[in-house]
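$ fold --in a.seq
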Amino acid sequence: MIYVNNWEDYALLDVSDANRLERWGKYILIRPDPQAIWQKKSSALWDMADAVYRRSPSGGGAWDFKKKLPEKWTIGYNPLGLEFEVSPMGFKHMGLFPEQAANWNYMADKIKKANRKISALNMFAYTGGATIACAKAGAGVCHVDAQKNIITMAKQNARLSGLEAADIRYISDDCSKFAARELRRGRKYDAVILDPPSFGRGAKGEMWKIEDDLFELLKLAADILSDDPLFVLVNLYTAGLAPSCAGYMLSLLFSGRFGGAVESDEIGIYAESAKAPFPCGAFSRWSR
């Protein structure tokens, strides 16, 4: 498993009873996590939570605020000089996945060591964690997400990180359709990042199902890679798909064509209570 334990503005304090106890800046929140199948020991920390996201038996859920919180606030990932606006959102989200810092470090290191201008394509780019990590390292980035409100959040994160004038192109579109158009245009990228959902809809209602559509999108990604590609990274948060599943596809599509190597593993966040990483998802990445 890869993970980081150098966040200052975020901490996973404890995990148990299907919940995470987290510190986001100076606020302590409880959010559901079904992987925490063990029961917690009594801890006064859990009673200090400022807000709890409670699931509804009928589906969905809502935040239960124990005290008034700001609508939004800012946290930073200091090792890379990144700043993010976070907020208690629907479906338990905060607008950021802190465990992805491990991948941000990887991408930033690859881009800096390339010693040339790198063009990166970030699809299903969400609020732009990978986008601003790559841009901060000097890459030009095309940021693609179907949701316009999410792109607005990504632009704000870029501004907070001092990247308002950076070489970032924001596109609100269905990722598969956009990649196909880029192929027809003959546009090439040195790096491709994908963070696909299990299920979703594009900007015009296009349906996405990861089991049916991921391989076809990866085929497009292989065709729009430059002649001197740097890396391809795929995140998997889908239950039932092992990291090696994406790894096999990367080997099939990229290693045979460009050489290089594939690595697949879990990604996690360091839990202070256990002094060990807690699993949050999976990734596979190919590099030349």
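$ fold --in b.seq
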Amino acid sequence: MTAAGTTPPRSPSSLRERKKLATRRALRQVALDLIAERGFAHVTVEDIAAAAEVSPRTFFNYFPSKEAALFGTDPDDAAALRERVARGAPGQPVLDALRTVVAGGVSARAAELAELGGDPAEWLRRMKELRADPQLRAAQAAQMAKLERALVEGIAERLGADPERDPYPGLLAAVAAGVFRSSMSFWAASGGTVPPGRLADLAFRALADGLPERCALRDVAAHDSRKDDR
């Protein structure tokens, strides 16, 4: 679960904010293009900065590494995710809180990809192809592990549990991460026809019902596929 992760992006309200957002987008676009063209190991931060016509120092104002530029991650993501899980939707069951967080996260992720220009599902497919690179797989795995740990800690705090003694927070965190991944994957495979936030929402509802074979999650996917065939 990337940063984009958890909160839908807000429209920038000032010229400075719009310029900063444009620079962030440009750096991500360039990183994706260069790494797709040359391979991850053959692209440096200096290469990305030069292609985006900014200094390396400016690059580091936006991203801590080239991996972060590629995946759109932010150093504060894990802490923000933990806070949302621990304190969001007060009074609601933890599964409902996770449904809200993950559905918002995949929607924000799709919106961030859309802001790069072109087909957002195609950007996601390109990034998945790039992850065939062993170094990138390791970088993504490390990022996902960090975010999943934030989920565990947020769930444990919400429940007043000790994740070292209670397996429930770890299980729910793994499920939430799986819903995020499967929702984004299906969204890309469907060409973006099924809103990813809707997929995540229905996935959690199916989980709450015990994952029945007949459920709204499967119905909506089948319905949208039939609609595309017409």
